[in-house]
Each structure stands twice: as structure tokens, then as C-alpha cells.
Amino acid sequence: MQGSVEFSAVTKTYGPIRALADFTHRFGSGRVHALMGKNGSGKSTLIKILAGAILPTAGDFRLNGVPAHFTCPRDALAAGIVTVHQELSLVPGLSVAENIFLGRLSRRRLGPVSVIDWPRVHADAARLLTEMDIGDIDPGQPVSDLSVGQQQTVEIVKAMSFEPAVLLLDEPTSALAAREVDHLFALVRRLRARGVTILYITHRLNELFEIADTCTVLRDGHLVGAIEMADATPEIIVEMMFGDVAKARRPARRGAVADDPVLSVRGLSRRGVFENISFDLHRGEILGFAGMLGAGRTEVLRAIFGADPLDGGTIVLDGVPVQGPTPRRMKELGLGYTPENRKEVGLVQQLSIHDNLCLASLGRIAPRGMTSRRRERPHVARQIRDLAIKAADPLLPVSSLSGGNQQKVVIGNWLNTGPKVMFFDEPSRGVDIQAKQQIFEIMWAEASRGVSSIFVSSEPEELLDVADRILVLRHGRGVAEVAPGETTLAQLFRICMEGHP
Ligand SMILES: Nc1ncnc2c1ncn2[C@@H]1O[C@H](COP(=O)(O)OP(=O)(O)OP(=O)(O)O)[C@@H](O)[C@H]1O
Ligand SMILES: [Mg+2]
What angle do CA 200, 218, 2 make, to 5 degrees? Predict the structure, then answer.
């Protein structure tokens, strides 16, 4: 199995936008090639061209020296190119096994007809899951029951089942916890040893040094250069990505937060999901939620926001006891929620960037119901500026933005509501390190204006850097509360994994 990939002068334009410009480069086989670059630099565009999902405007590429002409994803798949795209693509109503073998379910003869061989499909899926050492996903489970992280795991299992010659991974780890990342890396190494070529997109610098052999950097659609990881340092790569742009700074630690609680939660339970969750969130505080994938962090936030039902417990928001929260009521009381899964619940893909930035805040922008682009424009402009959203024109559909820029729109949409309390669920998922820093700086600025937030992240480093206090959840229970200043990364990891220091 050989899979070298060679691009010559590949360009992709969308009207005036050059998503990829004159890209010429060779990716050797049997190696892991990281693709780096800030949000909107053209990484996904390159992957999509290779995957047959979009056609280049100009230029061509070769596979093992043979010119390739893909007009659809099936062509690429037939050539052994398998892709895990940035946005999840599973069919929620189907089971895990059905999703893995979609369009190629094993069949058997039953008299004159051929029927789907369900026992075999399930056994094959179970074998793949076992091979990847994934114990908590059942092949018969509907995908809609899975967390985002588990869905991403299923996408990867599915990709592996095609036995790729070239594997394209577009931010495969953004929703994975440490253990799943280790499994993925073990698999990637196995494939590499078999000569598979792997293109790997990530915004996590530390992953490069663990898994990549080379690093290729894009900036504004142009190739900046490629280096061997053996010769690389984080500084060199950041320099290649951002050039002379100011480097990311850590936010300075702040003083004490006011001690009046804005949100008080006691004994919150949802059967089989989480149990007896209690905490206070103070004015101007950033409370981190740490935990492994499936610890129940998102589920707790969703229930408080009224998106999922509760079985018990009390919630007091800004002095008001809330019985049976609904998203509408919670929003009126000043709660904002940026969800982890932007495609499903964060954005309306067909609407413009402008409209998506106003979705949650129409009641505030136009209290009497009459709105206009003119009235909305300052709110839109402010978020585009503060969050540095890279958009050619705010009236383009939000789907035309790169993944990280879509994430910023989700956040801007809720900041426009002027919330008292914000839930940030994985806000830095898929955003480059500079944009991540901008988001954290906005969280700190909001906090100093008295906005309180809960910050969920699967990266403990971020929680230690950004939060004032961290609550650790494990198997749906609060197991510890830690102070970032007095906790090391290793300690926090350990509490997340084992429930105690
Ligand atoms: N359908 C489209 N219409 C218009 N512009 C597009 C379209 N698809 C992508 N673009 C633009 O092409 C550029 C490159 O986007 P791409 O998705 O390749 O970025 P990326 O490097 O993957 O970023 P991220 O890290 O945020 O995922 C961006 O400026 C994006 O807005
Ligand atoms: Mg992308």
C-alpha cells in the first residue's frame, strides 16, 4: 500500500476569495504530515480537494505519480483516499453499526432473496470497536444517543474500516479526551507502519510533536513551507503560522471575584446522566468544568439551560428560583449558551453570517419586533471586529466560513444578547491558537464587567489558564473542586481520570 500525494499549482477560488493559491507540494508515503495554519488558511480546502468533495479551480495532483481526477467523493474513496471531515457527518437516526457500514452492509442469501446480515454487521462493527479499544460504544446504539466525542470516535472507526492508502484527518481530536486521542495515535502509527500516508490537521501544537513526521504550514491559502518535525520547535511553527503578527499572550490572572452567587444549583439530577450536582457561580467568576469525555459536563449545562428535562434539584438564577427551565425563560433571565456542536445547534447554515450573529439577540436589538439590517449592523460589526471573524462579506452564508470562524460566530451570537451568565461549551474547539487567545480575552473582559461564566473544556491546560475555580465531574457526579493556582496539570488530569488527587 503506497500513497504519495503530489500537488502542482492547485488553486481554489470562491468568487474573489482565494481559499488555496497555487499550492505545490509533495507528501511522501508512510508518514504523518501535519497541516497547520490559522483559521481560514485553506487547510480544509486542501483536504476536500483530495477527498473529491470539491474540484480545484486550477492545477492538478498525482497519487503515486499517477494523475488523479476526482469528480466526487466516491472517486477518491475508490482510489483509497479516506477522509474524516471537520464537521461530523453521521446519520443520527441510524445505529453505530449502520453508520460504519453505510451503503455497504453485509448481505446473505435467504432462499431466493438477499437480506442484510445483521448479526454479521454488528459483529464486524463490534470487532472494529474492540480493535480500537472502545468499550463504551454499542454497535446497536443510535448515533443520536452519543456525545459529540463518541460520534467523532465512530467517524474514525468508520474511516479505518475502509483500509485507507491515504488517510485525511481534519481535526479528529478536537472533541476527543486524552484516552481516545491515545487510541487514535496508536492506530495512526500502525497505519503509517503499513505505508499509509496521513494528512493530519490540528490546532493543538503539542500533538504535532507526538504524532507528526513533517509539518506543512499554510497562510491565507499560500504554502509558507514544510519542515521535518525533528528540526521543529513550537516557536518555529508559530512563527510560520502567524508571521510577525503579535504572539498569543496568556491572560493575566485577576483578583478575587465577588462572592454573591448569580447562579445557585442544588441537588440537580437527571436519571442515568448526572446526579446530585450542586455549585454556586459568583458574579464575575469563570467556573471551569473539567472531566473526561462523557463525564456529564455538557448534559448538566443543557439541563440548566432547559434544553433537556431534569428529574430533581433546584436552580436559582439572579435571585429568581426557576422551576422547569426552558431555553426561552432562561434566556429572558440573562443566560446565554454557546453549544459544543455548532453544526447542529449553534448555527443556521443557510443564513448569512450577519443573520447568525443576530439570531439570539433580536429581542434586544429590536425590542418592538421591527428590525433591519441597519439596526443590526453595529452589533454584527462589533463581533466581527472583537472576535476577528475572517469573512469577506457578512452577507455570505455562514457555511462559507472556515470551521474556526463558524465557532466564533456561535460565540458572537450569544455575546450580542448581553448575558449575565454565559455557558461556554468547548469554545476553543477548532480555533487556532491566536483566535483561542482572543476568545479567552473576551471571556476575561466579560468577567471583569460582571458577567459570570461556566467554561467547559476537554483541555485541562486551558482550564488552569482561564478559570478562577474548577469543578471536576466524573460519571455524572461532582467529585472535586480545585483552585487553578494550587493545582498542577498532572494533578488535574489525575482527578479527571480517577476522581481523586
Ligand atoms: N463555499 C465557500 N464559499 C466562500 N468561501 C469559502 C467557501 N468555503 C471556504 N471558503 C473560504 O476559504 C478560506 C479557507 O477555508 P478553509 O475551510 O480551507 O480554512 P481552514 O484552514 O480549514 O480553517 P479552520 O482552521 O478554521 O478550519 C476561508 O476564508 C473560507 O471562508
Ligand atoms: Mg478547517
Answer: 40
pLDDT along the chain (501 residues), means of 10: 87 90 96 92 95 95 93 93 85 93 87 89 92 84 86 87 92 77 85 92 88 95 95 87 59 62 96 95 95 88 95 94 93 91 77 93 81 89 90 91 89 92 90 83 89 91 92 94 89 82 74
Q: How far is CA 323 from CA 313, 326, 330, in A?
A: 9, 9, 11
The range of the structural domain enclosing residue 354 comes to 346-418
CA distance 414 to 378: 15
Q: Distance from CA of residue 374 to its chain's centroid?
A: 33
Ligand 1 pocket check: which of 23, 45, 46 to mutate, most ligand atoms within 8 Å of Cβ? Answer: 45
Question: CA 65 to CA 100: how far, in whole Å?
Answer: 31
Closest-CA residue, ligand 1 atom 25, reads: 39
Strand partners, 478: 473
Q: Which of 418, 445, 464 is the last residue of a domain?
A: 418
Number of Cβ within a 10 Å radius of residue 62: 14
Question: Are residues 448 and 254 in contact, defined by beta-carbon separation less than 8 angstroms?
Answer: yes
Ligand closest to CA 218: 1
Q: Enter the C-alpha cell of residue 416.
A: 450580542
Domain closes at, from 210, 242, 274 = 242
Q: First vs last Cα of the chain: how many Å apart?
A: 46
Report d(CA 286, CA 257) in Å as an integer.
Answer: 9
Name the residue with the closest Cα to ligand 1, atom 9: 400
Q: How many domains does the chain divide into?
A: 3
The pLDDT of residue 175: 73
Q: Which of 72, 59, 56, 73 is nearest to 19 (CA)?
A: 56
Q: Both 317 and 367 in a single domain?
A: no
Q: Please give the number of the atom of ligand 1 that sits closest to the Cα of 390.
A: 29
425590542: which residue's cell?
367
Ligand nearest to the Cα of 403, by number: 1
Please check whether residue 29 lies inside any domain of the structure. yes
Q: For a pocket test of ligand 1, which of 10, 11, 12, 17 has the largest count of ligand atoms closer than 8 A to its C-beta? A: 17
b/e code 400-421 from CB counts within 10 Å (16+ = b):
bbbbbbbbbbbbbbbbbbebbb
* CA gap 304, 131 in Å, rounded: 37
